[in-house]
Amino acid sequence: MSFPLKFPADAPLLTITHPKPALWVLEMHNGDDNRLTHHFIQKGLLPALDAVERDWRRNVKPGPPTKDHRGKEGGRGALIIVGKRSQQKFFSNGLDFDNLMKQHNNRVDFIPGLIGAYNPLLRRLLTYPLPVIAALNGHTFAAGMIMALCCDYRVMVDGKTRNAWMTMNEIHFGATLPPTFPALFRTKYPDGHLHRKVFLEGHRFTPSEALEAGLVDHIVSGNTDAVLAKAEELASSLEHLAQLGGYGVMKYEMYRPILELSLKDLHITNIVADDEAAKARL
What we know:
single chain, 2-enoyl-CoA Hydratase, Chain A, domain 1, 7-stranded mixed beta sheet, ClpP/crotonase-like_dom_sf, Enoyl-CoA_hydra/iso, Enoyl-CoA_hyd/isom_CS, delta(3)-delta(2)-enoyl-CoA isomerase activity, ClpP/crotonase
């Protein structure tokens, strides 16, 4: 397989590089803010994740090591996902909510279908067989934040030279949540006070606040290059964990309730319908 790879090939929205034998870097460049659209997920992110896994699996010999285990050095691997390097403002601005609202005449009943496209990405990242590190080189909003939290580790710019926030801001623009989003938080962060701050207040976490809350693992001074350097350092310390093929299987068992929930028919309360029903009842 020859790198760099671009997806989709005819109009690339992301690029995969392979700078080291055990490292792959996926750079998103779907516009400046990497909105998570159907097209970007289905034609860009999901096939790109497949391509990295195919390349990694060429050197994997799963199972416990033996004396003649030829995969002793092979099978190592880690993946970094980063926002567009040249703009250094966004990791991802979440789902393309504004344009979808316009297309659907300001109705919110399109959301289950959109989440139906997003859930496969959530499942893929939660069970990915390599350690996945999100290099947050800017704002990480809404579904972009969930995407980052589906990764195993997060390194974020410290926000001192420019603003960089992490937030679930749905409460501020009248959107509700699919069941998988709070389920992810319940699994990774049992603190109910944090849930309230994230979902009911829509708090904008600064990088230092995100670090204190455990939403990110490291914050780094500087630009995207500095964030990537720290992510690469972390990747080097983790790459051996993928070597025997159990990393993704282990994650599946950790996140089984979320994965099973994401496969069920989605029922998301329609805010407009809820208001009408409440008025009728009252």
